[in-house]
Amino acid sequence: MQFRLEPEEEIFRQEVRDFIISELPPSWRTTQGHHSGLETEEEWTFYRSMMRKLGNKGWLTLAWPKEYGGQADTIKQFILSEEVYYYGAPGLDMPGVYMLSPVLIRYGTEEQKKQHLPCMASGETLWCECFSEPGVGSDLASVSTRAVEDGGTLILNGQKTWITQAHRADWGFALVRTDPEAPKHAGITFLLFDMKTPGITVCPITDLAGMNTINEVFFDDVRVSKSNVVGRMNEGWTVARALLGFERSGIHRISQARRIVDLLVDYIKETSYHGEPLSKVPWIRSRVVDAAMDCEVARLFAYNIAWLQSKELAPPLEISMTQLVGHELQQRVADVGMQVLGLYGQLERDSKWAKLAGAIEHFYLTSIGATFAAGSSEIMRNTLAVRGLGLPKG
Length: 394
What we know:
Layout: H1 7-23, H2 41-56, H3 74-86, H4 94-107, H5 110-122, E1 127-130, E2 146-150, E3 153-164, E4 171-177, E5 188-194, E6 200-205, E7 214-225, E8 229-230, H6 236-248, H7 252-270, E9 272-273, E10 276-277, H8 282-310, H9 316-341, H10 359-373, H11 377-386
Parallel strand pairs: 1-4
Antiparallel strand pairs: 2-3, 3-7, 4-5, 5-8, 6-7, 9-10
């Protein structure tokens, strides 16, 4: 692994920063996370416009092979993600551009590529990932949503939950069970579908942070053409594993944690207690410094994945380790923020008394959600330990 970027890559990072800073309105809550503030039509319109601008710059396809209009540059894609999530900017469709597109390039039919890749590249379509079900999170292969063949179509019935941006997405992809008699990891099919298909119902879920960007999705006799199957029937688990590798190797939660730590550093420098800045209080200084070092370690984990992917390698152990490190980093940084801000850290972002625009309260609740999203840190630790790669607790 290389531990420094090339000059061209540093120039690109600055170009991305300049673009984000110039495009974000002063009112945008850059400290609230990638999907924060996406409550009104006006905010979603801005999100969509940012997608198109990123598409016009060719930045949504940085890692795509050149024959599909990309630059085959995984590192630049990583840099773009890092900066976008650090500043809380909208416009990156992670389910579509970062997760689904490389899977379509590898497993999709030519018709699927012609239909979907150009719209992804231009930022015209928004996707959602319909994987989790009630009672099915970390044990993803236990999906029960059924798809029954009827000639050239599949008829879907079932329920998905915790689906981010399903209420805004144009298209979705899901794992469905097409052979209930097969072993658990077999008999699963990877399927694409238009979110406007009759029989699809989306119901919002209000999360702990008070946001409504996640949803339940119900399928009632939804008819989808078999031409929308990615890969082969009953072999969707292979496709899903490849897709999840791109999701778990991301930098997003690490960048958000770095942003929070940088805000805390400024806060303890500028805030005084008994005539001295908080940065002079030993335990505060120590905790914030530890959090900053944790961020840099996690960042190196993520950069290692980006480098491996640039070499067309995607080892699952390193990917799982990076996901675990990122989730636990969120929790540690959120805890440090709460300790430093005290009761102020519990105030919501709309409170006039909230410090740092309520960023700590929101990030803390997000970190709790990350625990559930990971299935369980303990499950992940046990999995890694069995392979001889256990990480220390604490």
